[in-house]
TrEMBL record, chains A, B:
GO molecular function, one term: zinc ion binding
Compartment(s) of residence: Cytoplasm
Short name of one Pfam family: Lactamase_B_2
UniProt name for this protein: Ribonuclease J
Family matches, as PANTHER family: RIBONUCLEASE J
Quaternary structure and interacting proteins, as annotated: Homodimer, may be a subunit of the RNA degradosome.
Biological process terms in GO annotation: rRNA processing
Record text on cofactor binding: Binds 1 Ca(2+) cation per subunit. Seen in 1 crystal structure, it is not clear if it is physiologically important.
Family: Belongs to the metallo-beta-lactamase superfamily. RNA-metabolizing metallo-beta-lactamase-like family. Bacterial RNase J subfamily.
Residues bound to Zn(2+): 89, 91, 93-94, 156, 178, 405
Keyword S-adenosyl-L-methionine applies: no
PROSITE patterns (alphabetical): UPF0036 (PS01292)
Active site: 210 (proton donor), 383 (proton acceptor)
Gene: rnj
C-alpha cells in the first residue's frame, strides 16, 4: 500500500506545439497503459530514434485478432527521419512489430545485442526481410544521428538485455528496457548499478523505467533458486517428465538441462519456437548443452519414460501447442499416463489464466501431477519489484521519471514509489500512449498528446479490422444473428417469395424464429400498402418487428440482418 | 508440491448397475471438475436427497451465456422421489439453481439455516416462487425420508454455513459444504471440530469435502486480520473512500462499518444485491449497524467526500456494476477524483482477472489509489487450504473420501493431501460430474457414470442454447460472417439478380469482398450449365469459391452463409 499520488491523469490533452529548437521530445506509441507493444520515439532536431518495437497480445474484447501493433500513423510520413531502432532485448513485446515497421521502410538500422539481433534475424527471415543490423554490447557507444547511445547491461528473463542512455544536446535520457536486479544471475551478468550511478552523477534528465512489477513489494528471488526445486521434482518423478516454459528463457531451460544431466535423462525439445531459439542460444554459447544430451522427439517417445524429459512450449495454455494437445489427449506422439509429472516453469500472463488452468485440469484429469507457480517455486519474474525500482531511482537520481511498460495501475504504483524516495510529484510524468513529453532547458513536461489507435493484425492483413468489425464480432459472438431475406417486385409491391430465414449462434432449436415469420410478412404487406415505400424502409420494418419479438420472447439481442431484394 | 497420486481418472465409465438393496448412492450433477453449480444427489431405497443446487458462471468459451445449471436430466423423471434439498449456505454456487429446480417441482422442501433460507426466499420472490422452507440450525436433526440429517456449524465467508451428516442404514455420509477453520471468526462461530471428531468415532463411511483451496499450502489468515488493514487505509484516506466486496460477505462489510464508525464516516450501500443482502443480514441480527450510520447514495454524494464511505458491488469487474461505471467515468452519481481511494476487499475469481484489472486501471487512470488483494491484505479466502483439509481428515477419520467442489487440479491435490495423512489411494474416490459412487456393505466405490451436460441459461430461456449455438458464436465472434444471396430462375437456370453480399465482423473495409463477387457469379453460371443442378449444389459452389478465396487472400475463416433463392 502506498500513499495516493497527487498526480493528475492526462485526459483531454491537445495536439502538442512544435518541438522548440534544442529540445528533446519523447512519445510512446505503445507500452504506456498496457503491457506490450513497447515503442518509444525520441525526436531531436528533426531526427527520430525509436526504442523497441513490440507487439501486444489481444484480450477477449479483441476477438479473432492475432496481434496488436503500435500505431505507426504518427511516424509514417517521417520514416526517412528515423536514425535507428534500438532494441533492448529479444522478447516479442519489444521486437515483434519490427517486421511491420520494416515493411514501411526496410533499411532502418536495427541496433541491439548479439542474442537480440539473432532472434530478430530469425523472425525477419520468416517475413523474407533482410535487415540492416548493428550489433552492440554493454559499454559500447553508438551514434544514431544526434542521438549518442551508450549501452548498459541489465538482468532480465532473457540473456543479453540492455538499457540505453541517450545523450543529446538537450540532455540525457535513460531507458531501462525490461530489467530486474537478480544478484546471482546464472550467467553472471548483473544490472550494472555502477553505470547507472555514474550516469546519475553526470546527470540523467529523464529516466524511463520498467513499471511491470511496481505493485509487487520487495526484491526478486534469484533465478538460481529454481534449480533446487526442479531438482527435487526430478528426484521424485518416476515416469515421464515434461517441463513447459517460455521459448526464450535460456536460463530456465539451462537449469532443466542441468537437472536432466544429473538425473540421467535425455532431453527432447517440443515446439517450433523452442527448437529455434535454443538452437540460436546454443550457437551463441549462451546455452550449454552436454554432448549427447539432446534427442529428437520421436526418439524420446521410444525411450522408457523415466529416461527422458520433454521441454515444451505451451506454458500459457495455448490450445494448439504441444502441451495443450497433450492435455486434451490428442497429441499424436505423446500420451499422458497416470503418474506423469508436468512442470509449468513459467509465469501466468494476466488474461491467460483460464486457458492455463484448462491445460492443468486436462493433465490432472489424465492422472498427471502438475506443478506450477501457484504450488511450487518454479518461476520467478523477470521484472524489478518495488524495492528494486526504488533502488534504481536512488542510484540513478534522475531529475525526471517517466514510468513506462505498464498498465495504469503499474504506472501509478511506480509513481508512488518514486515519491517515497523523495522525488516531488511534478518531476514524475505519468503518461499514456501518445502523450508527448518535451525536455527543454533541462525541464521535462507533458505538452500534449496525439491520438494512438490499436492496429490489429488478423491473418495476412494489417489494419483492415478495426473497432467496427470488433464490435460486430462481440455482438455476433455473444448473441449470434438472424438474417431475413425477402424478394419483392417493386412495381407491383408484392412479395415474390416468402421470407427466407437464416440464423446461427442464436439457439439450437431450428424453429426458434418460426413464430415471427408470419408477423414479419404481415408487417411487410402493411408497409407496402404505402406507394412511397422503398427497400430501406422495408428493412427497417423487418428489423423492428424481429427485434421487438426476440427481445420480448427471449430477452436476447441477436444481430438482425434484413435484406430486401428487388427483382 | 505433493507426490503423484496413484489414482486413475475415471474416463470411459459405463452406465451404472441398479443400486443394490441397502446401498447408498452418491452422484454429483455439478461441482466436480468445476468451481460452481454444486449439486450432489443421494439415493437410498428409491428415495433421493439433494445437497445444494448452485449455478456456475460461464467462461469465455461459453459466450453470451448468463448462467450454467446442473444437469437435472438425470433426476427429471424422479422429482417426486426428492425428499429434500439441503442447502449448506447461501452463496450463488450453492443456491443459484434452486429457482430452475423448483420450476420442475415447486414443493420440494428446502432445508437450511436462517440466513441461507432468507437469501433463498429473497431470490425466489424475484422468480415469483413461494417455496416450502424448513429452517435448521447447527446441532439440529432433520429426517428427510430415509435420510437422517444432522447439522454441524462450519466457518465460511458467509454467516450461518452448515455441514451435514447424513445417517442412513447404509452408513453415514458427511458433506462439509464450503468451510475453513478461522480460529478467530468475527461471529465466534467455529467449524465444529468436536462434532466432526464425534462423528468420526461413531464412524464416517464417506466424507465429501471442499477442495477449492487444496493447492494452497498452510492455514487461513483470520478474517479479523483485515480490520487493521482497512483501518490504516481509512486513517490515510483524505477524500472519497469506496470499498467493494461480495454482497453476501457480512463479516467483511461489518469490518468496513466498524471502520466507518471509528473514522466518523457515514456509509452508503451501492448495488441492488448489496442493499438487499445487508438488509436481510441486519434484520437477522447478523450485521450490527450503528444508529444513523447509513445514508442513501444521493445523500452521500452531497456530503463532503471525506465524511463518507461507499460500499459497492462490482468487485469482480462487472462492467455494468456501479464500480465498473465509475472506472469508465460514466456513473451518473459518483465521479472519481484524483486522490480518491478504492479498496477491492474481495477475491479475484479465476476468469475475471482481465475484467477486474480493467476496472483497477480505469480507476488508476482517473487518479485514484486502488488497493486490492495483490497489494495489501484486504482479502482472505473462505475455503480451507491444505493444512486445514489434512486436519479435517485427521479429525473425522473417514473410511472413504470423495473430494468435491473443485476443478480436476483441486480434486487431485486434495487426494494427494489425504494420501499424506495415511489414507490409502483406494479409499479416495476421484470423481467428476455424473460419476456414480455406491456405498454398499461399508465399501464405497465408483460403479459407473451417467452423461452430464451443461445446461445454459440465456435470457429467458433454459436449454435452447447448446454446443451447436456456442460453436457458431465462437466462429462468428472470432471471424465474423459473409452471407451471399443469389436469386435464380430454376426453369431457365439464370441468375435473376446479381449476387447480394452482406458481411459483418470481417473487415472494416466495405469493399473487402468486391473482388470475389465476379468469380462467384462465373462459377455459378458454369455450375448452372448442368441441367441437374439444384439450390443445394449452388450453395456449395458459393461456399467453396468464397472459402478458398478468403483463405488465400486473408488467411481467415469467416462463417460463409450462401443462400440460393428460387423465384
Amino acid at each position: 500500500m502506498t500513499a495516493a499520488p497527487t498526480l493528475q491523469p492526462h485526459l483531454g490533452l491537445k495536439t502538442p506545439p512544435p518541438l522548440p529548437r534544442g529540445g528533446l521530445r519523447v512519445m510512446a506509441l505503445g507500452g504506456l497503459g498496457e503491457i506490450g507493444r513497447n515503442m518509444a520515439v525520441l525526436e531531436f532536431d528533426g531526427q527520430l530514434m525509436v526504442i523497441d518495437c513490440g507487439v501486444l497480445f489481444p484480450e477477449a474484447e479483441q476477438p479473432g485478432v492475432d496481434l496488436i501493433l503500435p500505431d505507426f500513423g504518427v511516424i509514417e510520413h517521417r520514416l526517412h527521419e528515423i536514425t535507428a531502432v534500438v532494441l533492448t532485448h529479444g522478447h516479442e513485446d519489444h521486437i515483434g512489430a519490427i517486421p511491420y515497421l520494416l515493411r514501411l521502410r526496410k533499411d532502418i538500422p536495427l541496433v541491439g545485442s548479439r542474442f537480440t539481433l539473432a532472434l530478430v534475424k530469425a523472425k525477419l527471415r520468416e517475413h523474407r526481410i533482410d535487415p540492416v543490423l548493428v550489433e552492440v554490447a554493454a559499454g559500447d557507444d553508438h551514434l544514431a544521428g544526434p542521438f549518442h547511445c551508450e549501452f548498459i547491461s541489465v538482468n532480465h528473463s532473457i540473456p543479453d538485455a540492455l538499457a540505453v542512455a541517450v545523450h543529446t544536446p538537450a540532455g540525457t535520457l535513460v531507458h531501462t528496457g525490461d530489467f530486474k536486479m537478480d544478484q546471482l544471475p546464472l550467467d553472471g551478468v548483473l544490472t550494472d548499478l555502477g553505470a547507472f550511478a555514474r550516469l546519475g552523477v553526470e546527470g540523467i534528465d529523464l529516466l524511463l523505467s520498467d513499471s511491470t512489477n511496481a505493485e509487487v513489494p520487495g526484491f526478486v528471488t534469484s533465478e538460481r533458486n529454481i534449480g533446487p526445486v526442479l531438482d527435487s521434482v526430478f528426484e521424485r518423478a518416476g515416469q515421464r517428465l515434461i517441463v513447459s516454459s517460455f521459448a526464450s528463457h535460456v536460463h530456465r531451460i539451462q537449469q532443466v538441462l542441468d537437472c536432466a544431466v544429473k538425473h540421467k535423462r535425455k532431453v527432447a525439445l517440443v515446439g517450433r519456437s523452442m527448437v529455434r531459439n535454443m538452437g540460436v542460444a546454443q550457437d551463441l554459447g549462451l546455452l550449454r548443452v552436454a554432448p549427447g544430451l539432446m534427442v529428437k522427439l520421436d526418439e524420446a517417445t521410444a525411450m522408457p519414460p523415466e529416461q527422458v524429459v520433454l521441454i515444451s512450449t505451451g506454458s500459457q495454455g495455448e490450445p494448439l501447442s504441444a502441451l495443450g494437445r497433450m492435455a486434451r489427449g490428442d497429441h499424436h506422439q505423446v500420451t499422458i499416463e497416470p503418474g506423469d509429472t508436468i512442470i509449468l516453469a513459467s509465469s501466468l500472463v494476466p488474461g491467460n489464466e483460464t486457458a492455463v488452468y484448462k491445460v492443468i485440469n486436462g493433465l490432472a484429469r489424465l492422472g498427471a501431477t502438475v506443478i506450477h507457480k501457484e504450488t511450487a517455486m518454479v518461476h520467478v519474474s523477470g521484472h524489478a519489484p518495488a524495492g528494486e525500482l526504488r533502488t534504481l531511482i536512488n542510484v540513478a537520481k534522475p531529475r525526471y521519471l517517466m514510468p513506462v511498460h505498464g498498465e495504469w495501475r503499474h504506472l501509478r504504483a511506480h509513481a508512488a514509489l518514486a515519491e517515497q524516495t523523495g522525488m516531488s510529484a511534478d518531476r514524475i510524468l505519468l503518461a499514456e500512449d501518445g502523450v508527448v513529453v518535451d525536455l527543454v532547458d533541462g525541464k521535462a513536461s507533458i505538452v500534449g498528446s496525439v491520438p494512438i489507435g490499436n492496429v490489429y493484425v488478423d491473418g495476412l492483413n494489417v489494419g483492415d479490422v478495426g473497432e467496427e468489425s470488433l464490435q460486430a464480432r462481440r455482438i455476433l459472438g455473444d448473441e449470434g444473428f438472424v438474417a431475413l431475406t425477402v424478394v419483392i417486385e417493386p412495381s407491383t409491391r408484392t412479395i415474390v417469395r416468402p421470407v427466407h430465414l437464416s440464423t446461427r449462434g442464436f439457439s439450437d432449436d431450428p424453429g426458434a424464429f418460426n413464430e415471427v415469420l408470419g408477423l414479419v410478412e404481415k408487417e411487410l404487406k402493411r408497409a407496402m400498402e404505402d406507394e412511397q415505400v422503398d427497400a430501406h424502409r422495408l428493412s427497417q420494418v423487418i428489423r423492428r418487428t424481429v427485434g421487438k419479438w426476440v427481445s420480448d420472447t427471449y430477452r436476447r439481442r441477436p444481430m438482425i440482418i434484413p435484406t430486401v431484394l428487388e427483382v
